[in-house]
Design goal:
31% strand, disordered N terminus, 6 helices, mainly beta, disordered C terminus, cadherin binding, Cadherin-like_sf, 5-stranded mixed beta sheet, membrane
C-alpha cells in the first residue's frame, strides 16, 4: 500500500477512536424528549395522588445527558454509509409507535436518519475545507399521525479534519535583489505558504520551511520563511543571478507530512567596487597641424566592470599641457575620452606633445573612501600640412587723398608662407564682391594697392575691401585680410546756404530790422573746423535797401536800411551774397536771398504778401463786387426757368400706356441691324425710317474743292455734313441746339513713331556727352548710355 494511503488510514482510525470515546454517552444515553407541567424539557414526569384531596405529590424526573454536537471524519469513502451517531428519547420504550425526523443543513441529502432507531449516517464523502460543520434539528413524532411528541432539538455535526491539503505558495515564484558583497545574514526576502487544513486540530497546518536548492549561498529561517545571505563575498561581477528552491512541509516537518515548493530568483545589484582601467598604458595619435580648433584628435577609454552610474568616469589632463593646447571630454554614450584641440597647433613651433590622462569614477562608495581612478600616457605627434599664406596684419588701415590721381599707390599688404620650406610664391587679389565699383587694383606679385578710379570723400569716406593671398602651386590654400581705406578730405567743395531761404519784409518795418538770419554748410570736413566769410557782391555793396551783419557764429543777419518798402512799388528783392570758407585754397559760392515785401499787422505778423489786391479799380469795393455776383446768379436762374420744355417726354411724366415689345438679341458692336433705342422714346415712329448715327451713311458725295480728305479717300467734311443733315431731319431730336459727338480715328502719321523702343535699332551713334554738364546724376546717366566699341562687341 502506498505511503499516502497508509498515512490516511492511520489518521482515520485515530479519528474514529476519538469519535467513539466522545459520542458513546450520546448514543447510549441520548436525551429524553418529553414535556410535563412544572418540569424542564429533557426529563420525564410522573403524576401521583396524595393522601389528601387537592394535594399533588411531585416526584423527581429522570434526567438525560446534555449534548449538542457530533463528529464525522472527512474524506471517508467506505463501501457503506458511515455512522455519525444515534438519537434516542425516553419515549422510545416498548412498542410505542414513534419515529425520528431529521431537518436542517444536508438533511436527506448528506445525512440520513433511521426513523425507527434514530441512527444518523453520512451518505456522501465530506470535505472540511468546503464546509466544516452542519446544523440540524431532530424531533420525535407519532409514526401514524406525524404529530410531534416532543419539541425539536438542535445539534451540530462537525467534519473532523485529516491532513489532505499540501502547503501552497500563493505569491510565488518570487524575485528579490540584494547588493553584492552583502554580509552573512542579510535578509533577501520572505516567502509565505498557506495550508487549507485545520490549524487547531493536530499538526496538519503546522509548516516548516527549508532550502532544497541554493546552498551554500542562501539560507531560510524554518518558522518565518525569511531567506538570508549565507556566504560572504558574493561578487556580482562573478555571478549576478541565483535560483533558490524553498520547501514548506506540514505536520511540523515530520515524516508523513505534505509539502509544497517555490522558487526565488535572487539578483545581486551592483556597487562601485571596481576602479576604471585603461585598456592601454600608452596611446599615440598623429594630428595634422591644420586640424581646426574643437575637432577631435583621438579617443581613449577606461573600462569599468561595474554597471550603470557606477561605471561612469570623467577624464582629465593632469600633466603635459602647460599651454592649454588640448582638452579631453567624456562621451556620455560610449564613456570614451575625446581629445580635442583648444588652440591651433603649429608643426614649425612644436612637433610633439606628451600628456598624462586620468579617468575617475563619478560615484564612490562611502566605505571605499576616495574615488577609484586610473592614469594613462598620451603621445601626440604633429604632422606637417600645407598651410595657406598668413598676412602680417589681419586688418590694414590705409589713407588716400580724395584728389589723388589714378594709379596712386595707397599701400602694400604682405603675407608669408608658414610652412617649413617657406619659399612658395604667393599671389594677391582683391575680392571684387567687396569692390563692386572697381575703385582699386592690386599688384598680384607684391601686394601694392593702387587707385583705379577718382575718389570723392563726400560720397564715400571709407572703403572696406578684402584682399586674398594664395599659393601658386596650391590655389586651394587661401587666406584673407581686411583693408580699410580712408579717403582724406581736401577743400574741393564751396560753402552754400544751409537751405533755400525766403525772407519776408513788413511794409511798416523799421530801419535796422533783422529780416533773415542766414547760415551756410560745407560738404568738406576740415580738421580745424569751418569758418565762413559772408559779403555782398561788389555791385550790391552800396545798395540803398539792405545790409548784412556778421553774428560771429558762422551766420549773418540781413538788415533793412529804411522803412519805405511798398508792395505797389516792388514786391520782391533779390540779394546775392558771397560765402567763402577757410580752406586751402579757399572756395566760395554766390547764393541769392529772396526777400518778399508783405503786409503785416501792428505786431509785425505777416498777413498778406499778394500784390493783386492793389490793382483792382478804386471805385469798386468788396461789397459792390458781391452784389454784382449775386445779380449774375439771379439772372442765370431766371433764364433757366423761362426755357422751353423739351419735346421729349420724361419718364415720370409719360402717362401713355404703350407696350413696346423688344426680344431681339443683338450681336455686339459689329451688329448694324440692332434695334434703335430711339423708338422707345417715339412709339409713332416705329414703322418709319430712323437713320443710324453710329455707321457711315449710304449717300456718297464727291469732294469739292477746298475740302479735306482723310486717309483711304474718306472725305471728312462730307462725313460731317451728312451727320448734320441727319440731325436736322431727325423727328426725335430736340428743337434747340445740341451737341453731336462723332468719333473717327485716322491711320498713319507724318511724324512717325515717337516711341523710344526703336532707338536701339538705329544705326546712328548718339552722343550723350552733353549730359555730363547737367550735374553728377546726369553724368552717371550719360556713362550708362555711352557704350564703347569694345563693350558693343561684347
Amino acid at each position: 500500500m502506498p505511503k499516502r494511503s497508509e498515512e490516511m488510514l492511520v489518521d482515520l482510525w485515530m479519528s474514529l477512536l476519538l469519535v467513539w470515546i466522545t459520542c458513546v454517552p450520546c448514543v447510549s444515553m441520548t436525551p429524553i424528549i418529553g414535556q410535563s407541567k412544572g418540569t424542564q424539557t429533557g426529563g420525564s414526569a410522573a403524576e401521583a395522588s396524595g393522601p389528601g384531596e387537592g394535594q399533588r405529590l411531585l416526584s423527581r424526573a429522570k434526567r438525560g445527558w446534555v449534548w449538542n454536537q457530533m463528529f464525522v471524519l472527512e474524506e471517508f469513502s467506505g463501501p457503506d454509509p458511515i455512522l455519525v451517531g444515534r438519537l434516542h428519547t425516553d419515549l422510545d420504550v416498548g412498542g410505542k409507535n414513534i419515529k425520528y425526523v431529521l431537518a436542517g443543513e444536508g438533511a436527506g441529502t448528506i445525512f440520513a436518519i433511521n426513523e425507527l432507531t434514530g441512527d444518523i449516517h453520512a451518505m456522501k464523502r465530506l470535505d472540511r475545507e468546503e464546509k466544516a460543520e452542519y446544523t440540524l434539528t431532530a424531533q420525535v413524532v407519532n409514526a401514524d399521525t406525524d404529530e410531534p411528541l416532543e419539541p425539536p432539538s438542535e445539534f451540530i455535526i462537525k467534519v473532523q479534519d485529516i491532513n489532505d491539503n499540501p502547503p501552497q505558495f500563493n505569491e510565488g515564484p518570487y524575485r528579490a535583489s540584494v547588493p553584492e558583497m552583502s554580509a552573512v545574514g542579510t535578509p533577501v526576502t520572505r516567502v509565505t505558504a498557506t495550508d487549507a487544513d485545520d490549524p487547531v486540530y493536530g499538526n496538519s497546518a503546522r509548516l516548516v520551511y527549508s532550502i532544497l536548492e541554493g546552498q551554500p549561498y542562501f539560507s531560510v529561517e524554518p518558522n518565518s520563511g525569511e531567506c538570508r545571505i549565507a556566504l560572504h563575498g558574493m561578487d556580482r561581477e562573478m555571478r549576478e543571478e541565483y535560483l533558490v528552491v524553498i520547501q514548506a512541509k506540514d505536520m511540523g516537518g515530520h515524516m508523513g507530512g505534505l509539502s509544497g515548493t517555490t522558487t526565488v530568483t535572487v539578483t545581486l545589484t551592483d556597487i562601485n567596487d571596481n576602479p576604471p582601467k585603461f585598456s592601454k598604458s600608452l596611446y599615440e595619435f598623429v594630428i595634422p597641424e591644420d586640424l581646426p580648433v574643437g575637432k577631435m584628435g583621438g579617443k581613449v577609454k577606461a573600462n569599468d566592470r561595474d554597471i550603470g552610474e557606477n561605471s561612469k568616469s570623467t577624464y582629465s589632463i593632469i600633466e603635459g599641457d602647460d599651454q592649454g593646447m588640448f582638452e579631453i571630454v567624456t562621451d556620455s554614450q560610449t564613456q570614451e575620452g575625446i581629445l580635442r584641440l583648444k588652440k591651433p597647433i603649429d608643426y614649425e613651433s612644436k612637433r610633439a606633445y606628451t600628456l598624462k590622462v586620468e579617468a575617475t569614477n563619478v560615484r564612490s562608495e562611502p566605505s571605499s573612501g576616495a574615488p577609484f581612478k586610473d592614469t594613462a600616457t598620451v603621445k601626440i605627434v604633429v604632422e606637417d600640412s600645407d598651410e595657406p599664406p598668413i598676412f602680417f596684419k589681419p586688418v590694414y588701415l590705409l589713407e588716400v587723398n580724395e584728389n589723388a590721381p589714378v594709379n596712386t599707390v595707397i599701400g602694400t599688404v604682405t603675407a608669408r608662407d608658414p610652412d617649413s620650406t617657406g619659399n612658395c610664391p604667393r599671389r594677391y587679389f582683391i575680392d571684387r564682391h567687396t569692390d563692386l565699383e572697381r575703385q582699386f587694383n592690386i599688384n598680384v606679385d607684391n601686394g601694392k594697392i593702387t587707385l583705379a578710379k577718382p575718389l570723392d570723400r563726400e560720397t564715400d569716406t571709407w572703403h572696406n575691401i578684402t584682399v586674398t593671398a594664395t599659393e601658386v602651386r596650391n590655389h586651394s590654400q587661401i587666406s584673407r585680410a581686411i583693408v580699410a581705406i580712408r579717403v582724406m578730405d581736401i577743400n574741393d567743395n564751396a560753402p552754400e546756404f544751409a537751405t533755400e531761404y525766403e525772407a519776408f519784409l513788413c511794409e511798416n518795418g523799421k530801419p535796422g530790422q533783422v529780416i533773415q538770419t542766414v547760415s551756410a554748410v560745407d560738404k568738406d570736413d576740415p580738421i580745424q573746423g569751418h569758418y565762413f566769410d559772408y559779403r555782398l557782391v561788389p555791385e550790391m555793396l552800396n545798395n540803398p535797401n539792405f545790409t548784412i551783419k556778421n553774428n560771429q557764429d558762422n551766420s549773418i543777419s540781413v538788415l533793412a536800411k529804411h522803412d519805405t518798402f511798398r508792395r505797389q512799388k516792388q514786391e520782391m528783392y533779390f540779394l546775392p551774397i558771397i560765402v567763402t570758407d577757410n580752406g586751402s585754397p579757399p572756395m566760395s559760392s554766390t547764393n541769392t536771398l529772396t526777400i518778399r515785401v508783405c503786409g503785416c499787422s501792428k505786431d509785425g505778423i505777416v498777413q498778406s504778401c499778394n500784390v493783386e489786391a492793389y490793382v483792382l479799380p478804386i471805385g469798386l469795393s468788396m461789397g459792390a463786387l458781391i452784389v454784382f455776383l449775386f445779380l449774375i446768379v439771379v439772372l442765370f436762374v431766371t433764364l433757366r426757368r423761362h426755357k422751353n420744355e423739351p419735346l421729349i417726354i420724361k419718364d415720370d411724366e409719360d402717362v401713355r400706356e404703350n407696350i413696346i415689345r423688344y426680344d431681339d438679341e443683338g450681336g455686339g458692336e459689329e451688329d448694324t441691324e440692332a434695334f434703335d433705342i430711339a423708338t422707345l422714346q417715339n412709339p409713332d415712329g416705329i414703322n418709319g425710317y430712323l437713320p443710324r448715327k453710329d455707321i457711315k451713311p449710304d449717300l456718297q458725295f464727291m469732294p469739292r474743292a477746298g475740302q479735306h480728305s482723310g486717309p483711304n479717300g474718306v472725305d471728312v467734311d462730307e462725313f460731317i455734313n451728312v451727320r448734320l443733315h441727319e440731325a436736322d431731319n431727325d423727328p426725335t431730336a430736340p428743337p434747340y441746339d445740341s451737341i453731336q459727338i462723332y468719333g473717327y480715328e485716322g491711320r498713319g502719321s507724318i511724324a512717325g513713331s515717337l516711341s523710344s523702343l526703336e532707338t536701339a535699332s538705329s544705326d546712328s551713334d548718339q552722343n550723350y556727352d552733353y549730359l555730363r554738364e547737367w550735374g553728377p546724376r546726369f553724368r552717371r546717366l550719360g556713362e550708362l548710355y555711352s557704350v564703347g566699341e569694345s563693350d558693343r562687341e561684347t
